[in-house]
Write a structure and sequence with these properties.
The complex is a heterodimer of chains A (295) and B (317). Chain A is α/β, with parallel strands linked by helices. In chain A, 45% of the residues lie in helices and 9% in strands. In chain A, strands 2-1-3-6 form a four-stranded parallel beta sheet, sandwiched between helices. Chain A has a two-stranded antiparallel ribbon with strand order 4-5. Chain A is globular. Chain B is of the alpha+beta class. Chain B has an eight-stranded mixed beta sheet. Chain B has a five-stranded mixed barrel with strand order 9-10-16-13-12. Chain B folds into two domains: 105 residues, no CATH class; 205 residues, 3-Layer(aba) Sandwich (Rossmann fold), CATH 3.40.50.300. Chain B has eight helices and 18 strands. Classes of the chains: A alpha/beta (295), B alpha+beta (317). At the A-B interface, helix 2 and helix 3 of A face helix 1 and helix 3 of B.
Chain lengths: 295, 317
């Protein structure tokens, strides 16, 4: 990997924003929690503005295939700029550049990886029990859980797929939940660090410190402890209640809903839980998500 | 080679590429300010001071390479050379020529180029900016439905006159609408050309509603969205207005390559000091187009009779 971008890659609702909040608090090292409405690592690789700023023409004048052909070049250009900027920074001020992405690791019509390896320093891949993802994702999109479970099993599932209006993001192909996971973690030649949401919940400081090490940062334990404290779920909920959160979908009632691992046991229902296991059992087993409650 | 003569952005443009969007210059006299011709374009510039995925730029030169469509070479603020790919569609060539290439040309001529739609009124020009997807063209469509006259849809040129006042120059009377927006505005798309054959985005010519005169720059409305239900309006203090003007500059990264930071900053600070800059926030979930247009019309009406200096003084008080 010769690039300068560390990707924060995940299926939606798998801890990506929480990781950005931890990283932002660690980086800023301030006396109060970072504002959730001005986080580092964003907005997202698929933001239309990032494309338009760097290509020289607007995505709104292009077809989906044309856009995807150009996206790898956008990330290479950003990576080059980061590289140039870092060469001019004092070592003490240097910090890795993170960028959130929800796209699966797919290829363009030319067969080139959308997320260019030449732009990549490494990828932090966050995953979460798909039964919890289903509940959180349904709440986030204000859709019913059954439909959401259907989308998670649909290999054609994509964000911003409709071409009749202008959206502030570009099309993102997510594949199925299992397809998303394996597209990233099994991609040959990609430097990757896998983080399970459940592990991050259970021992945030230790798991977050490993993420920092992966990105080339020697973790300072006091700063880590402070970042963890400033990123506590109840604090994030309080910030959202007080001032709102710009990344919430318009129809959702809140972004920071429950954050708890394993809530599917009470809330998902046997039928949908069984369907998820049937759709994704192999990948669930591989990452230690037992097929029975309490496993 | 047959050429046509047009007038847009107060420039006399002679073109070998048909440009039906631009008003014809029937009464033109003298040499053209800009020549658009078909010819050879180099693969790369000799010197590159700034680049994007598809462009290279240096002082006085800008090169855009659009695969399978054309390569464009914009030079010295007075020439655009187009090297078409075999079989390229005319519409495809024009989209990129009238967007990024005209933007680069105006930058080279040291205009302040804003990514904005504009209407002309007896009180002056009012601009609507915001990143792509915020609804500039849709709002412009609603204002056209209400009888306003447009100056430009997307690439808006601003100059300073002799007294230093910021003046908006008229572009051309064409807007572009996505299928959903056209439906929302009751604009039938049956007879309209698509901007490009594969896109559900349509070209709408409105020569009958063209404000074809320079107009003093009175207001800049920057459209943003929020995930709440609120529709709100906030007049920005001068210190924030400057950053907003820079941020809404058309293809602002071109400026690094073109070496145009200095004149751009000067004109942007004039605008920030003399023009009312307003942030308008609408819900991202529901457009609330009629309410948005009501709010903006009322705000414009509220400015009537006030000189910009008075507005600025009142704001700073």
């Amino acid at each position: 990997m010769t690039g300068h971008i560390h990707w924060l890659a995940s299926y939606p609702k798998s801890g990506n924003t929480w990781m950005r909040i931890l990283l932002t608090n660690y980086l800023r090292d301030a006396d109060e929690p970072a504002d959730i409405n001005s986080l580092d690592g964003g907005p997202i690789a698929s933001a239309r503005q990032i494309f338009d700023d760097n290509v020289g023409i607007e995505a709104s004048d292009l077809t989906q295939d044309e856009i995807e052909r150009l996206r790898p070049g956008v990330y290479e250009l950003i990576s080059d700029r980061v590289g140039e900027a870092r060469r001019e920074l004092p070592v003490d001020d240097d910090f890795p550049t993170f960028l959130k992405v929800h796209d699966a690791y797919t290829r363009t019509a030319d067969g080139v990886p959308l997320i260019s390896k030449a732009a990549t320093a490494g990828a932090i891949y966050l995953l979460r029990d798909p039964r919890d993802v289903a509940l959180s994702f349904a709440h986030h999109s204000a859709r019913d859980v059954e439909k959401t479970v259907g989308s998670m099993g649909d290999p054609e599932f994509a964000f911003v797929d409709k071409g009749t209006r202008l959206h502030n993001q570009l099309r993102q192909r997510l594949l199925t939940w299992s397809g998303h996971v394996t597209s990233w973690v099994d991609e040959p030649g990609l430097r990757i660090h896998v983080v399970r949401y459940e592990d991050l919940s259970a021992d945030t400081a230790a798991v977050f410190s490993e993420v920092l090490r992966f990105a080339g940062v020697d973790p300072d334990p006091a700063r880590v402890a402070k970042a963890v404290e400033f990123s506590r779920f109840d604090g994030l909920q309080r910030q959202e209640a007080d001032a709102g959160f710009g990344e919430k979908m318009p129809r959702a009632t809140s972004f920071f809903r429950e954050g708890r691992a394993g809530s599917w046991v009470e809330s998902l229902g046997e039928e949908l839980a069984a369907r998820i296991v049937s759709d994704h059992g192999a990948v669930m087993d591989r990452f230690g998500y037992g097929v029975h409650a309490g496993d | 080679m047959t050429t046509s003569l047009h007038r847009a952005y107060d420039l006399l443009i002679e073109s070998e590429l048909p440009l039906p969007e631009l008003p014809e210059a029937t009464d033109a006299a003298g040499a053209p300010d800009v020549r658009v011709r078909l010819g050879d374009v180099p693969e790369h510039l000799d010197v590159v001071d700034g680049r994007g995925v598809l462009y290279e730029a240096t002082a006085d030169e800008f090169l855009l390479s659009m695969p399978d469509i054309a390569r464009f070479w914009v030079r010295n603020g007075d020439e655009i050379v187009i090297d078409r790919a075999a079989g390229a569609d005319d519409n495809d060539v024009r989209v990129f020529m009238l967007g990024s290439c005209v933007g680069a040309l105006l930058h080279q001529r040291e205009l302040l180029v804003l990514h904005a739609a504009a209407i002309g009124t007896e009180q002056g020009a009012f601009l609507f900016a915001g990143v792509s997807g915020m609804g500039k063209s849709t709002l412009l469509g609603e204002l056209l439905n209400r009888g306003h006259s447009m100056m430009v849809d997307d690439v808006c040129g601003v100059v300073a006159d002799e007294s230093g006042e910021a003046i908006v120059v008229p572009g051309y009377p064409r807007t572009r609408l996505w299928a959903d927006a056209a439906r929302h505005l009751d604009v039938p798309t049956d007879g309209l050309d698509r901007t490009r054959p594969e896109l559900e985005k349509y070209e709408r010519q409105v020569p009958e509603a063209f404000w074809n005169e320079r107009a003093p720059f009175r207001g800049l409305y920057v459209l943003t969205t929020s995930n709440t239900d609120d529709l709100s309006i906030e007049v920005l203090p001068r210190v924030r207005a400057f950053g907003v003007v820079l941020h809404n500059t058309y293809r602002r990264l071109f400026l690094d390559g073109l070496g145009m930071r200095k004149p751009h900053f000067a004109l942007a600070s004039t605008v920030a000091a003399t023009v009312r800059v307003v942030r308008v926030t609408r819900p991202s979930g529901a457009f609330k187009l009629a309410e948005l247009a009501d709010l903006i019309e009322a705000d414009i009406a509220g400015q009537s009779g006030q000189e910009p200096s008075t507005v600025a003084a009142a704001r700073d008080a």
